[in-house]
Amino acid sequence: MAKEVYKSIHGEKIIKELVIDIYDSFTEYKLHKIDINTTAGKTTILKTGQPDKPVLLMLHGTMSNSATWFGSLKYFINDFCIYLIDIPGEPGLSEPRRIPLNSEIPQNWLLEIFDNLEIKNASIVSMSLGSWYSLNFATLHPHRVSTLAIISTSGIVPPKVSFIFKALFFMMLGSKGLKLINNAIYYKTPQIKDDKFIKYQQNLNKYFNPVVEPIPILSNKRLKTISFPIQYFGGDHDVLLNTFKTAKRMKKLIPNIEIHILKETGHVIIDQFEKISCFIKTHV
After folding, report:
1. Number of neighbours of residue 74 by Cβ within 10 angstroms
2. Domain residue spans of the chain
3. What count of Cα atoms within 13 Å lies in the side-chain half-sphere of residue 154?
């Protein structure tokens, strides 16, 4: 396993308390917390929705956690049994150690979750790094995935190196740098103004180490194995990833993919969940 991701024990305590507060403050739908012991350590999952409906897994991106999905649950809550998964090594409630991406652990970790929860197959909605996890798993265990919706997907083309260097510099500027990073990543998408979330982001920048391991690029051979329904969303102003190259490569290797390149949109995409829900319900 990779080294711990928090800069101090004190910082980890602060972040986890803030995450718990955010989770506990969400009362729109009942969330049932589940902890599973996996190859990657403890994994925390929030279950909601309808137990007798098709299963939907949701995987957030890096520097985030399952609260990513709280605003979108209304589009899925009546039609799915939903599991929100805190990825280990990210600032949620799962194991605070990163999974080595260039290993078999990522696929084994998700497979253990499927088996532990007795999920035969499921639809998956994922974002950024979470989409790498879902694609990596789906190309190795396609019979376990019925439908896949991926947003701002990592692992198809290399990230934009220019922004990585800018972000490292911005992080040394404290709150001013955090604002510059968020403005670039969100672009024209409105940023959350909730006081709890703002406090969480400020402390995240102070106490949490971002991912530095390169995201493995999925091979042509593996991407060509995808035959299940798949939908992709990317913003034309994504500062982290080249959306156009991503879409072009996937369309070449996965001819049946449904591609949406959104105009005047950055890396963060939060307004397409009704379309995603309709897509999944059509194919599940």
Report:
1. 13
2. 9-283
3. 24
Residue pLDDT, tens place only, 124-173 = 999 999 999 999 999 999 999 999 999 999 999 998 766 654 555 455 55
Question: Model pTM?
Answer: 0.93
For 66, which DSSP code? G
9-283: CATH topology is Rossmann fold (3.40.50)
Q: Which residues of 211-242 are buried (b: 16+ CB within 10 A; e: fewer)?
A: beeebeebeeeebeebebbbbbbbbeebbbbb
Give the 3-state secondary structure percentages of the chain, helix then strand then coil, rounded to 5: 40, 20, 40
Query: What angle, rounded to 10 degrees, do the helices at 105-116 and 129-140 form?
Result: 80
Closest C-alpha among 43, 48, 6 to residue 27: 48
DSSP assignment letter at 65: -
Spatial contact of 27 and 16, defined as CB atoms under 8 Å apart: no
Contact 36, 116 (CB under 8 A): yes
Burial of residue 117, with CB atoms counted within 10 A of its CB: 0-12 exposed, 13-18 middle, 19 or more buried? middle
Structure-token pair, residue 37: 């012991």
What are the structure tokens assigned to 98, written together? 């990163």
Amino acid at site 211: V
Helix (H) or strand (E) run with residue 168 in it:
helix 161-170
- 177-228 pLDDT, tens digit each: 666 566 667 767 776 667 888 889 888 888 998 888 889 999 999 999 999 9
In this structure, the number of other CB atoms found within 10 A of the CB of residue 205 comes to 20
Tokens of 35: 């902890």
Angle (CA) 239 137 94, round 5°: 75
Q: Is the dihedral of CA 123, 128, 134, 140 positive or negative?
A: positive
Cβ pair 145, 282 in contact under 8 A: no
Which phi and psi angles does 42 have, rounded to 5°? -60, 135
